Design the sequence.
């Protein structure tokens, strides 16, 4: 299945030319697509062009919201979206003082199988197309008004760099001024540390804020919780992160989810501080959201504070991320699983 939202501006121009229409039609079309318009809503687009696109197999709705859950604690909204093939993915809209951030998925499921994450429990189902990734933002804007989504984090289910080509088209489209026009500074890409793809991303001119899910200060601990650590060492990750900084001049963020008794000792804090010192980066701590199937627990609050204090004392730039939407299954993949298992109320 192909969708209008998969098209780059250049692709729409080609369609318009192939159809024998003047080029300015591409701008009109691209702008409708970014607003989530259906064919019958594109009032200034000639019927021949719409019929041509339909004859080429382009659908107008890659994804739609099927369920919304709003947190009573902080206004966070969790969405379930249906894809046209019946698969279901999820997303989260977080409301901050400086604007709204949408957490977007890049795959149905995930094949990284991190020991603490719900998204990988059933492995990878399939990649999302660029239009299915973009469509999540467009659907939320359509629901709450255009411009609702100011920032985007690729932190939903899936490993974005394991779906590199579609993620790259998405990055191009999401910041295109003729389309959604979300500032490049407002886009963050989170990866479990696929080093060659981290390099490729910046070599190809993409400059999202890069967030690396480190979660351990050494290979021994990392291998216990992240199978991907068997492919890339912690040192390779730090080297690739430095490379990304040198090319993009964007500070890299390391995610560190504190798991009780696994990666939260004083020694871990000291080792982490030594690992990341000496280049512009930032550490984001969060206490693990426990996922019932995974049997791991988050570090208690006082111990999290101690871990943070050690990093601060060793001059690491560090913040403690608030866990949002705790009452609506905020963590990765939890809502989708409930839905797919049929264990959640629908
Ligand atoms: N595959 C990418 C992006 C998706 S996961 C990545 O690994 O970065 C987004 C973030 O949530 C990652 O930092 C991931 O490690 C973290 N995460 C997953 N499950 C979690 C949980 N139960 N509690 C806290 N953080 C979790």
Sequence:
């Amino acid at each position: 299945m192909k969708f209008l939202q998969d098209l780059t501006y250049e692709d729409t121009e080609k369609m318009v030319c192939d159809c024998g229409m003047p080029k300015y039609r591409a701008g009109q079309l691209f702008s409708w697509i970014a607003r989530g318009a259906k064919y019958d809503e594109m009032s200034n687009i000639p019927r021949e062009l719409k019929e041509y696109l339909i004859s080429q197999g382009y659908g107008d709705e890659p994804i739609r919201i099927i369920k919304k859950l709003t947190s009573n604690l902080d206004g966070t909204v969790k969405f379930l979206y249906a894809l046209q093939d019946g698969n279901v993915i999820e997303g989260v809209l977080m409301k901050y003082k400086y604007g709204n951030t949408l957490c977007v998925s890049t795959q149905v499921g995930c094949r990284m199988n991190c020991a603490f994450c719900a998204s990988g429990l059933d492995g990878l189902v399939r990649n999302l197309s660029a239009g299915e990734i973009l469509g999540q933002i467009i659907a939320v804007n359509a629901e709450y008004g255009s411009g609702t989504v100011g920032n985007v984090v690729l932190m939903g289910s899936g490993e974005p760099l394991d779906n590199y080509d579609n993620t790259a088209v998405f990055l191009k489209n999401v910041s295109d001024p003729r389309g959604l026009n979300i500032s490049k500074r407002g886009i963050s890409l989170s990866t479990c540390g696929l080093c060659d793809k981290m390099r490729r991303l910046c070599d190809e001119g993409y400059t999202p804020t890069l967030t690396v899910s480190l979660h351990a200060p050494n290979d021994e601990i990392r291998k216990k919780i992240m199978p991907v650590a068997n492919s890339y060492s912690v040192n390779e990750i730090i080297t690739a992160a430095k490379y990304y900084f040198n090319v993009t001049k964007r500070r890299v963020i390391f995610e560190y989810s504190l798991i009780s008794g696994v990666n939260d000792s004083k020694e871990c804090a000291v080792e982490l501080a030594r690992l990341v010192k000496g280049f512009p980066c930032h550490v984001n701590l969060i206490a693990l959201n426990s996922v019932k199937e995974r049997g791991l627990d988050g570090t208690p609050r006082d111990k999290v504070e101690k871990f943070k204090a050690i990093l601060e004392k060793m001059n690491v730039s560090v913040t403690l991320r608030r866990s949002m939407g705790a009452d609506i299954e905020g963590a990765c993949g939890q809502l989708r699983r409930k839905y797919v298992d049929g264990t959640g109320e629908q």
